[in-house]
Amino acid sequence: MLSRRVFWRDRRLAAFLALLACGAALFFSWQVWSRQNTVLRIYDWKTGAIYAESPARPGDRLSFGWVHSLEKIPWNEYYHINDDLVIVLDAITFPAFGAGIPENKGRVCYVKDGLIHMEEIGQEFSELVWLNSHTATREIKLGGRLVAEGRSLPQHTRLRLVIERGSASGAGK
User: Fold this and answer.
1) Strand pairing partners for 78?
2) Rounded to two decimals, what is the model's pTM?
3) Could you read off the pLDDT of 37-73 as tens digits, one per residue?
4) For every residue of the chain, which 3-state class applies, written as one string?
């Protein structure tokens, strides 16, 4: 027969382990929930109005296509969302060099199918901010899905694109 001392010690240990297991389960559940409840939002920089949103998760690929204002050439930027919800620039493509176009961004540079590719850039952004133009901003895609086109966003308005925790509100849909 167990002594009282051993019984209570074992019971406290079991309670401690059960509490630890519950804490771990809650922590991991929160991690899963927060990863599933993130959203890409495009805001008006000044008013905070939401113009577009789409569910987003770490690992998702984001592409931003626009037309260079001076050179009038298409420019594409390719990003991914990291585990901290930071937007990481992976690559850019464009057909020619010109004013304001970098000549040495990233660790890999090559020409393929008439486009200059600069890859392995790794530049991090907490948000993307731009002045929207119906003629310059072409499209923004997340995971291959269209989030917004320049002509669907307000003309000559400063916008910001962020990845943040929270469910989609249905704005911009």
Assistant:
1) 63, 91
2) 0.75
3) 899 999 999 999 999 999 999 999 999 999 987 778 9
4) CCCHHHHHHHHHHHHHHHHHHHHHHHHHHHHHHHHHCEEEEEEECCCCCEEEEEEECCCCEEEEEEECCCCCCEEEEEEEECCCCCEEEEEEEECCCCCCCCCCCCCEEEEECCEEEEEEEEEEECCEEEECCCCCEEEEEECCEEEEEHHHCCCCCEEEEEEEECCCCCCCC
